[in-house]
Design goal:
Tol-Pal system protein TolB; 3 helices; signal; globular; Rossmann fold; 5-stranded mixed beta sheet; Neuraminidase; mainly beta; 6-blade_b-propeller_TolB-like; 48% strand; 2 domains
């Protein structure tokens, strides 16, 4: 078990190499103005207030609107809604109006009142689509968070991006590195220490059952899943040497992809056809990003900026990573680049910004921002040049997946 924790902390070391706070960079952009009007006759004052606040927040985070007060005389759209509750069931009607004319009316039903934030997120997502504005398909997606809650104890929780909804899914023992198993978010992989052996499990959210995938001495972590959901990139260390492996769920074949004498971890598929992988390696004497073709063991350096680049995530031909700034003690920033270009774009500033993850549409990036003893979930709207922060109140974060 000591070897497992040693490798576990090496893996983490590479990642470390109520109202949102909004940082608006492109202040000159003029957005259409929208008001939010609640016509509900709801007795639950807390739910009524929280739902309204989430809707307002979602419209801001979409970066498609400037939300103005209901008494404003100058606005382009009205987001009018009626929320009703019957026991554990919520029903929602949303009307979008422009110039006094109703443009759409959508009805929603939710049979689990605890998940009401997702009802708000979905209504905003679909309203944005109806108005043919920049999509926010990620908005009602769930986030997986592994949090430490005691010595050799960690939980896996599921949350919405604002962290208003939080539910413990896995508890008891050491449960680490959750990774969504498919685009539908109906299952996820995670690592547990099972009978003296690190073991990779798949948890089915429909049946609430966990099934064993494979075990390995040293460590075993699922770092990425392909689009079809039938192949997993895994970091394993059967001889205490972390390397990247490709596991085929259909054939049960496990293929070793790297064979470096140092540390290779955190592999992600990259490219439209997912024929390549990028991963973090210390083969230059410090953590950096490398790439190689599947079926080929020749790795090439991808990032030529910084001396401590880690925690990579990918979307098509793009990759985002955290990098420790030189001459700035303890400062890590998030950077974006394409494997088809030499351009690098800095997405964060100041402080410790770690664990970046692309949204499903590539238009947003979630990450953890540390400010001394405080931490927050950050959401970067890439094309809008805006960053939103949501205070983390879930304990010490070990890893996240979106």
């Amino acid at each position: 078990m000591k070897k497992f924790f040693l490798l576990f902390f090496i893996f983490l070391a590479f990642a470390w190499a109520e109202d949102p706070v909004i940082d608006v960079i492109n202040k000159g952009v003029v957005l259409p103005k929208i008001i939010v009007k609640d016509t509900s006759n709801l007795n639950d004052a807390n739910l009524k207030r929280s739902f309204y606040n989430i809707l307002v927040n979602d419209l801001k985070v979409s970066s498609n609107f400037e939300v103005v007060s209901e008494g404003s005389e100058n606005f382009n759209y009205t987001f009018e809604y009626d929320l009703a509750r019957n026991g554990n069931t919520l029903s929602l009607n949303v009307r979008i109006k422009a110039g006094g004319e109703q443009k759409s009316s959508q009805n929603y039903t939710l049979n689990n009142i605890e998940q009401y934030p997702f009802l708000a997120h979905k209504s905003v997502k679909e309203s944005v689509n109806f108005l043919a504005l920049a999509p926010v398909e990620w908005m009602d997606h769930k986030i997986l968070i592994a949090r430490t809650n005691g010595p050799k104890q960690s939980q896996i929780i599921m949350a919405d991006y604002t962290l208003t909804y939080q539910k413990v899914i896995i508890s008891g023992g050491l449960n680490l590195f959750p990774k969504w198993a498919n685009e539908e978010q109906s299952a996820f992989y995670y690592t547990a220490y099972d009978h003296e052996m690190p073991t990779l499990y798949r948890y089915d959210l429909k049946t609430n059952q966990a099934s064993k995938i494979l075990s390995s001495g040293g460590m075993v972590v699922a770092s990425d899943v392909n689009k079809n959901g039938d192949k997993i990139l895994i970091t394993m260390a059967p001889q205490d040497q972390p390397d990247v492996y490709l596991y085929d769920l259909n054939s049960k074949n496990l293929t070793k992809m790297t064979n470096y004498s140092g540390i290779d971890v955190n592999a992600n598929f990259i490219g439209e056809d997912e024929s390549k992988v990028v991963f973090v390696s210390d083969r230059l004497g410090y953590p950096n990003i490398f790439m190689q073709n599947i079926g080929n063991t020749n790795a090439e350096q991808v990032v030529f900026h910084g001396k401590n680049n880690s925690a990579v995530s990918t979307y098509k031909d793009f990759l985002v990573y955290s990098s420790r700034e030189s001459n700035q003690a303890g400062v890590f920033n998030i950077y974006l680049m394409s494997i088809k270009s030499d351009d690098i774009r800095q997405l964060s500033a100041n402080g410790k910004n770690l664990f970046p993850r692309f949204s499903s549409d590539g238009g947003s990036i979630v990450f953890i921002k540390y400010l001394g003893a405080q931490s927050a979930l950050g959401v970067i709207r890439v094309n809008a040049n805006k960053t939103f922060y949501f205070p983390l109140k879930v304990g010490k974060i070990q890893s996240i997946d979106w």
